[in-house]
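agent> Task received from the user: take the single chain below, predict its 3D structure, and emit structure tokens. No templates, no multimer pairing.
agent> Plan: (1) validate residues, (2) run structure prediction, (3) serialize to tokens, (4) report one or two observations.
agent> Step 1 OK, no nonstandard residues flagged.
tool_call: predict_structure(input=
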Amino acid sequence: MEKIIYDGDFFDVRSTLECGQIFRYERAEGGFFVHSGDKTCFAYNDGDNAVILAEDGDKDYFYRFFDLGADYGTYYAAAEKEGGVLAEAAKAGKGIRILRQGEEETLISFLVSQNNHIPRIKKILNTLCEDLGEKHLFCGREMHAFPTAKALAEKELSYFTRAGLGYRDRYVKAAAERIAAGYSLSTLRALDTPTLKKELCTFVGAGEKVADCVSLFAFHRFDSFPVDTWIYKIYKEDYRGTERNRSKAAEYFVSRFKENAGIFQQYLFQYKRSGGKN
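)
tool_result: status=success, residues=278
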């Protein structure tokens, strides 16, 4: 087992996991089991530090996954400079970091997330992983990897319906079949952000919000700004926005916050959703 000890001033494990960017984690005594692809780590805060326990050989993977090479103090300072509700949100969510998640897992996860709530999303994804993901042991516990596109594509549509996906069943089935047939999401990294989001929208069921989420949480494009119900409330109530089209609201925030839009979105989202609490 390998250990990462990191200054907790700008890394709160709970805030990072519970701000809506990831669904495959579980609370346990003393911290959280965090799953990514076929890997698992255990993460927690201990005093002034954040601690990550990973299997031998996985330390570098999770160092990158939690974006520990980036200085989030810079983002925090920029949010403070903006003032207003953003400064308040940054103070409450100071420990949030944007994860670097796998492209396929993130796309499938956010196709499932549409018009859904987090406990149900987690339950559906856990079902897919337990049924179709390869098993591995971590800390003596049996864990499951996220299913490969091939494993998902081989299942009948009825399987996804029974797993609780509802109308999203065909979205996941179609995405898995497309990727299993040779479509490589990793090649999209060469695209600029507007072109990336346009290409992501070619997946069945992927609208602009899904494309923004995948762009931010898998491709780490901080010039993305997903707009959901909570963010739209902020747009209307705190920024006095008048656009009814949420895509226009997203454009407003990206234009205003530029290269910091993605992290500012997470500050604001978590702040509004939690009623101003961390």
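agent> Step 4: summary for the user.
Strands lie at 2-7, 25-28, 31-36, 39-46, 49-54, 135-138, 141-144.
agent> Done.
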